[in-house]
Specification:
This protein is α+β, with helices and mostly antiparallel strands and 353 residues long. 39% of the residues lie in helices and 19% in strands. The strands form 2 sheets. Strands 1-5-6-10-9-8-7 form a 7-stranded mixed beta sheet, with helices on both faces. Strands 2-4-3 form a 3-stranded antiparallel beta sheet. Bound molecules: 3,4-dihydroxyphenylalanine. The site of 3,4-dihydroxyphenylalanine (DAH) has 11 residues, from strand 9 and strand 10.
Length: 353
Amino acid sequence: MLDKVKELHQEIEQYTINSPEQLEQFRMRFISRKGVITELFEGLKSVPQADRRAVGQELNGLKNLAQERFDSFSQLVNEQQSSARSVAPVDLTLPTIPNLTGTQHPLTLVRQRIIQIFERIGFNVADGPEIESDWYNFGALNFPDNHPARDMQDTFFVEKANADTDASSDMLLRTHTSNVQIRLMERQKPGTAFRPIRSIMPGRVYRNETISARAHCMFHQVEGLYIDRNVGFKDLKDTLYHFVKEMFEPGTRIRFRPSYFPFTEPSAEIDISCQICGGKGCNICKHTGWVEIAGSGMVDPQVIANCGIDPEEYTGFAFGMGIERITQLKYVVNDLRLYTENDVRFLRQFEGL
Ligand code: DAH
């Protein structure tokens, strides 16, 4: 029996504990009522009377040692547990992850600048759908069915109307932002006081073009519309002169060139002196010194009437320009595809603008 006690003594002394599981194993083996020490105490009865006292003392010593060890092991395990809970596994000496904030896209920058210029002279911003009916994109703007003017804008049709006769409700991706003009004018309620319209309408447009350096199937325009009593061609010229002066380099020249649009009469295209070569001639301006930036004109009385407004009383002008084109001239971007390729080497060049 004494041998057994000695053996267990040694075992306890050498015991190490690193986890709550090991602590529980220790408890089961030495402390619990089913453990080895309790078992030895039970065996005390069969020890001869003469030795019983001495063996009993040894057993008590063993029992105390086990209890002491158990207490200090439990303390240790408790401490380990709580420090694991309160200290997050974060190494504060590691270098930080750099905060890579992106830059604003050049088209966003230019759109914001265009809005700012027009807002300061009293234009508000309006919006309209990109998926549009034939009527809003073409019909109401004086493009009759099968008229050759439709050839100027190669269109993505998304849904043909049911009846083969009613082409005006065919659905398409808008080819220009001019649809928003119609929606704005239509909102004037007949019989109520006319509220002048002075809005610009930025947005995305779509045409069936093969993607190249000079053309894309998706691009951006800003439309402008001013309708009120006594709005004349002079107001159109003043407004666009002001825009060009604010947007481009000082000394930029501007010219109005007679043109044709189904929804304006008279119509004019607006050219500015080439920002790249200063008007001397280069491949951007096709060696003419001039670059077209917008279409414009006095809104055709028929278009005003199509929207339920009396064209005898109200007149107005409209214009439309491509944001990509303005950006190209302002920042010398020679390939349209750069805008949508998401190449950070291109985008980073606009940092801080
Ligand atoms: N919608 C024309 C286009 O995309 C541009 C345009 C020309 C808009 C004259 C107008 C305008 O409002 O009056 O080619």
